[in-house]
Specification:
Blueprint lengths: L9 H5 L23 E2 L9 E4 L7 E4 L10 E6 L11 E10 L4 E8 L5 E2 L7 H7 L6 E7 L1 H7 L9 E9 L8 E2 L7 E5 L7 E5 L10 E7 L10 E10 L5 E4 H4 L3 E4 L5 H7 L7 E6 L21 E10 L1
Antiparallel strand pairs: 1-4, 2-3, 4-8, 5-6, 5-7, 5-9, 8-9, 10-13, 11-12, 13-17, 14-15, 14-16, 14-18, 17-18
Length: about 325
């Protein structure tokens, strides 16, 4: 769906990415005795990087002298989480800032690290990415220094790649389908014949509405027990998009086989309005008039006509 932001995994982490740490006195919550907290031992180059800020907010980073970085990855947990430990079988949601250590410049501002949550069991995920996250508890902020040679081993065609720094907030994606409690529908235009917690929606049908351009309708048919989604947050969702005119599917994360992630203010307005104020774990039906969708300028080459009202069925899985 055009309008859902889909950055790739920052060119395998921007072609130069992982490191950092909150070492200002009293700032780090990591336990030095915890092997998940630090890789590489004491008195490392990573000790010369400082990070200030709460998890799930944009970090303020200062990079000092990291010339002593060797050939091995260095990682420190900055703000320790309390969620489940990340394993090689985990799928993770990551927001991060990416830096080129040689220039000390940010290559990518704080935001999602990839176009979709990262399946650490996938064969196409570089080992250095897996090493960055495995062993860390969910909802942690970590800092990782990554020698250039490790990235070059995994990045085809890359040249002159410098050492990288990644400041990352990471959360395990432990559900791929909404898990909320069924609610009575508030509309009868869109129906789902099978609408159950922890089950993919089936039998989605769209009845022709009485007017060509209905008002915005937001219908939470499963009510989740998670946090409220706030304006500007990044969400992980599963969704199906259809034309209100005839119910034709024009996009579906379920059909692609992976969730999508994006900020609530970086999608068409009606889609964002369908998310903000809902709770994580919810399934939402959204009927969106054209002026809150693509209006007279739909995505080129797609199947959405001009001035078309749209329908979305959305499962909200994460929000940070």
């Amino acid at each position: 769906m055009s309008g859902l932001t889909r950055p790739r995994m920052r060119a395998l982490i921007g072609a130069a990415v992982l490191a950092g740490m909150l070492v200002l006195s009293g700032c780090s919550t990591a336990d030095p005795a915890d092997p998940a907290s630090t890789l590489g031992g004491a008195n490392q180059a990573i000790d010369n990087v400082s990070v200030v800020g709460e998890t799930w907010t944009e970090p303020r980073v200062t990079i000092g002298d990291v010339s002593s970085l060797g050939s091995e990855i260095q990682r420190t947990v900055i703000n320790g989480g309390t969620g489940p430990e990340i394993t090689s079988a985990s799928t993770v949601f990551v927001k991060a800032s990416v830096f080129d250590v040689s220039t000390k410049q940010e290559q990518g501002r704080y935001g999602v690290l990839s176009s979709a949550p990262i399946d650490l069991s996938a064969s196409n995920i570089p080992q250095y990415i897996k090493d960055a996250f495995i062993g860390v508890k969910s909802n942690s902020r970590i800092a990782v220094l990554l020698p250039s040679e490790l990235m070059l081993e995994s990045t085809t065609g890359a040249e002159n790649v410098g050492d990288g720094l990644l400041i990352a907030d990471v959360d395990v994606l432990d559900q791929s389908i909404a898990w909320g409690t069924p609610q009575a529908p508030v509309q009868d235009i869109v129906t789902i014949s099978k609408n159950e917690a922890k089950a993919k929606p089936e039998g989605i049908t769209v009845a022709k509405p009485a007017t060509e351009q209905p008002e915005l309708i937001i219908d939470p048919v499963l009510k989740g027990d998670g946090d409220l989604v706030l304006e500007g947050q990044t969400v992980v969702v599963q969704y199906q998009g259809m034309l209100l005119q005839d119910g034709k599917v024009f996009d579906s994360s379920w059909q692609r086989g992976e969730p999508a992630q994006f900020q609530t203010d970086q999608v068409v307005p009606g889609f964002g309005k369908a998310l903000v104020g809902q709770t994580v774990g919810s399934r939402v039906i959204a009927i969106i008039p054209a002026d809150l969708a693509y209006g007279a300028q739909p995505p080129q080459g797609g199947s959405i006509p001009a001035n078309a009202p749209l329908v979305f069925v959305i499962d909200i899985l994460k929000a940070h």
